[in-house]
Design brief:
Strand 4 (about 70-75), helix 2 (about 90-95) and strand 5 (about 105) form a beta-alpha-beta unit. By secondary structure, the chain is of the alpha/beta class. The protein has helices spanning about 50-65, 90-95, 115-120, 150-160, and strands at about 15, 20-25, 40-45, 70-75, 105, 130-135, 140-145. It is globular, with a radius of gyration of 15 Å. It has a seven-stranded mixed sheet. It has one domain (about 15-160): Glutaredoxin (3-Layer(aba) Sandwich), CATH 3.40.30.10. Helix content is about 30%, strand content about 20%.
Length: about 160
């Protein structure tokens, strides 16, 4: 796999810090800077998004189960529609019901009903969106929709191997 890249050379970019207003499933706030040195997987989702519920979040759970401490999975609840239905109380119940155990941050909005800040910083186009960030804080892969488990696992394994401490 020598020379193999997750994205075309030149399409990698420094991963922007996320803007989170509240965290679930963690005792401390998580920052991208604080996770430097780890491979990070961001699963951007909305709890009312059918694709997020059917494959995005289950895939993130599988990543956490398979890769364990080698990868930090971060959920990003990034609401760009149905704002009134996706409250913190609803999200907390959703995370419990679906047994989501990894840290989940609620993306901040610059104004009520506007687009989420992290969603905009990453140039996301919808949910579910998955982002892979290497140990140096470089975004190496981003995709909207369904990503094949085998290809994603190979990509994550590559990031772990290439940047092992």
């Amino acid at each position: 796999m020598s020379g193999w890249r997750l994205v075309d050379p030149g399409r990698e970019w420094p991963a922007p810090e996320w803007a989170v207003e509240r965290w679930f499933n963690t005792e401390t706030d998580r920052t991208l800077a604080g996770l430097r040195g780890q491979v990070v997987v961001i699963e951007a989702f909305q709890m009312l998004c059918p694709g997020c519920v059917s494959h995005g979040l289950p895939q993130a759970q599988r990543i956490q189960a398979v890769f364990g401490k080698d990868v930090q999975v971060i959920g990003l609840h990034t609401v760009f529609e149905h704002h009134e239905a996706m409250t913190p109380v609803s999200l907390e119940a959703f995370l419990h019901e679906y047994r989501i155990g990894f840290p989940v941050g609620v993306d901040t909005h610059e104004r009520p009903g506007g687009m989420p800040v992290t969603f905009t910083r990453y140039g996301m186009q919808g949910t579910p969106t998955i982002v892979l960030i290497d140990r140096a804080g470089t975004a190496r892969f981003q995709m909207l929709g369904r990503v094949d488990d085998l290809a994603l696992g190979a990509a994550i394994g590559h990031l772990i191997d290439e940047s092992a401490p």
